[in-house]
Write a structure and sequence with these properties.
By secondary structure, this protein is mainly beta. It has strands at residues 13-15, 22-26, 31-36, 46-49, 61-64, 69-73, 78-83, 105-109, 122-127, 134-139, 150-151, 157-161, 168-178, 181-190, 200-205, 212-213, 272-276, 279-284, 289-291, 302-305, 312-316, 319-325, 332-336. The relative contact order is 0.07.
């Protein structure tokens, strides 16, 4: 918890009674500097480092080594509990989740050769040595804090940042290799940072919330998404054309170019047109339906009829027949057309 430092003109050493951390006043640069860690018996556990500890337990404390801001883990995220020297605010500390970073994810860099997408909180960045030379990005299904990853789309920007220095690179997605893997090219960058194995980097969208989380159901959707995207639930509208890609039948990746609905409605007080390669083949109007080509039955013996008794035109391999019930003998009378 936060505590007040003594007047450095009177006392130049201070100990935080909660964390056990020792501080020394330094005239140059004119601030309290961490000089000693907490005792081994500190309870709850306290970590003094540039980055928060991995796999924290609820109640654990972390002191940022440079800013000397103290944070506590509430079981979901780190939150600021006080400053030991009146330094920077918690929102500026690397790796800290707050309301301003709700759409940021954190991944620790792994060697591409050993990257495992099922290991949460990891990423692989290839092929350059610095963040401005990256050509491929892979991220695990969940980030360091268990938050689900984003699904970026082609031409969207990934904002990759080094939380320690603030250097960042904006990487445009040129190809979606698979969920969580992207080929990228540099849009622009500010500052230079190395790609270091074992270091944690932050990932966001350079556009305003321009990426969609990889979710299993709608309950995980954030409260507000970019209004460029159609809501999954509750109804919505969009401007087309909408193109659904994929093969006619489900392939090995589970992809299929199919739209499954219960109703199709023109919705604009006009005819509904069914097209083939851009040319209309069927017009569904208010009072009639017209066809631009032949009507073919793939199975012999199919009929065109009204009502429930299937009496009308029957089509088989030999032609079309008109079936009626005669008024006198009440039997079917086939008539060759």
């Amino acid at each position: 918890m936060p505590f007040n430092f003594p007047d450095p003109a009177v006392e130049t050493t201070a100990i935080n009674p909660v964390t056990g951390a020792t501080y020394q006043w330094k005239a140059d640069p004119g601030k309290w500097v961490l000089s000693g860690g907490p005792s081994e018996a500190a309870n709850p556990p306290v970590t003094i480092d540039l980055l928060p500890p991995e796999a924290p337990q609820k109640g654990d404390l972390w002191i940022h080594e440079e800013s000397l801001i103290e944070y506590a883990w509430d079981g979901t995220q780190w939150f600021e509990v006080g400053s030991s020297c009146g330094g920077e605010t918690g929102s500026d500390a690397p790796g800290v989740i707050n309301s301003g970073e709700a759409f940021t994810r954190y991944y620790k860099a792994q060697a591409p050769s050993i990257f495992d997408s099922t290991k949460d909180g990891t990423c692989a960045l290839t092929s350059g040595l610095t963040i401005d030379t990256i050509t491929n990005v892979k991220v695990s299904a969940n980030d360091r804090d268990g938050k689900i990853r984003y699904l970026y789309k082609v031409n969207e920007d990934i904002l990759l940042e080094d939380p320690d220095t603030g250097a960042y690179a904006v990487l445009r997605v040129t190809n979606v290799v698979s969920a969580g893997e992207y080929n990228v090219e540099l849009e622009h960058y500010n500052g230079t940072a190395n790609v270091d194995i074992g270091k944690t980097y932050s990932f966001a969208s350079a556009a305003d919330r321009g990426a969609i989380p990889d979710v299993g159901d709608d309950t995980h959707q954030p409260g507000t998404l970019d209004d460029r995207y159609v809501n999954e639930k509750g109804g919505d509208s969009m401007q087309g054309p909408l193109q659904v890609t994929g093969p006619r039948n489900v392939d090995a990746d589970g992809l299929e170019g199919t739209v499954k609905v219960l109703n199709v409605d023109s919705g604009q007080n006009g005819s509904l047109n069914l097209k083939h390669n851009g040319a209309t083949k069927v017009y569904v109007g208010e009072d009639q339906t017209s066809f631009q080509g032949d009507i073919k039955f793939n199975v012999s013996g199919r009929a065109i009829y009204a009502g429930n008794d299937k009496k009308g035109f029957t089509v088989n391999d030999n032609g079309a027949f008109y079936e009626v019930i005669t008024p006198t003998i009440n039997t079917l009378l086939p008539r060759r057309m």
